[in-house]
Amino acid sequence: MKLLKLGILASGRGSNFQAIWNSIQAGKLHAQVQVVISNNADAGALDFARSQNLPAVHLERNQFDTKEAYVQAFLGILEQYAVNFIVLAGYMKLLSPEIVRVFRNRIINIHPALLPSFGGKGMYGHFVHKAVLDHGCKVSGVTVHLVNEAYDQGPIVAQQCVPVLAGDTPESLAERVLKVEHVIFSAALQLFAEERVEVIGRSTLIK
């Protein structure tokens, strides 16, 4: 069993982060949160981190004169807190390729649809659920995937379907999808803690 030392990246309220934190506290996930980083100074995720006495860092590109300085600061924080695995828990920025290279196959994201459908740049939150409904889909779902240099294109680790119900709105669908996110994200992380995920090209094998 490998202890995952997590760097949590979040842009908003951080409900997935809180679900992961609860799984750790309940002994269901062999991990510890080293630091929480947000590009949004007012993110609820930072507030929750501080409430749990966890390191909480506001870090965004416009704090630095150059992209290179920003990337080095980002990597420096991850090194400072001994992070060995990155979790994108509602992080609305594309990670720099330099960070992806350093943490190759050790970064996961959660997406509120069944990738490869309804993924890519601009497809997040409300926009995903609206697109699912506009296309008349009968099923949506959740995808946990490894992160590479492109939006939502890394190897898939886990997926779970969520039915689309008659009369659904983006908000009602989002609510049901989020409940599944809160369960599947921690379960996928535990697979990495148990060293059961093998990456083969653009695919994963769960051992």
Q: Mind telling me the CATH superfamily name of the largest domain?
A: Formyl transferase, N-terminal domain
Give the beta-strand count. Answer: 9
User: How is the biggest beta sheet arranged?
Assistant: 7 strands, mixed
- The average pLDDT score comes to 96
Q: The CATH topology of the largest domain, please?
A: Rossmann fold
Strand content: 15-25%
Structural class of the secondary structure composition?
alpha/beta
Task: Specify Rg, calculated over alpha carbons.
Answer: 17 Å
**Secondary structure: helix percent:** 25-40%
CATH class of the largest domain: Alpha Beta
Uncertain regions: pLDDT < 50 for 5+ in a row? Answer: none
The dominant shape is globular
Order of helices and strands: EHEHEHEHEHEEHEE
When the domains are counted, the total is: 2
